[in-house]
Amino acid sequence: MFDLTDKTILVAGGAGYLGSQLCEAILLHNGNVSIADIDEEKLDTLKNSLIKKFPNRNIFSTTLDIKEEKSILECINKTQQHFKNINGLVNATYGSTGKTLEELSSEEFNKANEINLTGSFILSRNTIAKMNDGGSVVMFASMYGIVSPKPNLYPDGINPNPVEYGAGKAGLIQLTKYLASHYGNKNVRVNAIAPGPFPDLEKNDNYNQEFLSNLKNSTMLKRIGESKEISGPIIFLLSNASSYITGHVLKVDGGWTAW
After folding, report:
1. Mean pLDDT over residues 32-36, rounded?
2. How far apart (Å, rounded) are the C-alpha atoms in residues 70 and 63?
3. All residues at 6 or more sequence positions from 14 whose CB lies less than 8 Å from its CB, including other chains
4. Is residue 194 included in any domain, yes or no?
5. Which of 154, 172, 218, 231 has the greatest number of CB atoms lying within 10 Å of its CB?
6. Does the residue 45 lie in any domain?
7. pTM of the predicted protein model
8. What is the Cα–Cα distance from 167 to 146, expressed in whole angstroms?
């Protein structure tokens, strides 16, 4: 039911913390993967690692700067030329400054949302145009596209989740619904996931322990998410198991937004 055999999935931001886990999950479910990322070093490392684990699978990689329309189109065209068809897209890119509301400039706000909104629009529209037999698009939204950050969760010295990120992800949810409506008659489904707290503890083991405790206690399950827990819901949305689901935002947040 969750089989991706003969399906080619383009993963934008595929070499990131959650994206890399997803690329492996796609291969585990018999799909083909095109890994796209701006970080060439991470891209090469991930591709080589996956080739060792899946030596007989079709794994492709290409650079992608989602702020640049030319780079987006080149990424899509290279994927199409390599696989001849694209059946799925996962957009795991994001833009964020980490600055406070008072520090943030209008230029920085706009640059972040060239990624969150403009780049996502160009990427999805042009990838869908290559879907010859219908397909599935999954956007990475966020719990902060649904709710605002609570200031009391952030100890002194840690900025609340920045406004340009939340505003961009909220816009991405509306983009998801609009695209789902527009492309439904092409048999293209467009959904979003809204992850909750998924801090990369392997990358940064210096997280403020009070902050981590606050994150855990703000979920109904009293823990943060593990990277593998984001892959299952996305595989579901990419597969035929979700063939009658579109325009939906699937919250993967341990109950954070349900309080």
Report:
1. 98
2. 11
3. 20, 22, 23, 33, 34, 35, 36, 37, 43, 46, 61, 90, 92
4. yes
5. 172
6. yes
7. 0.97
8. 9
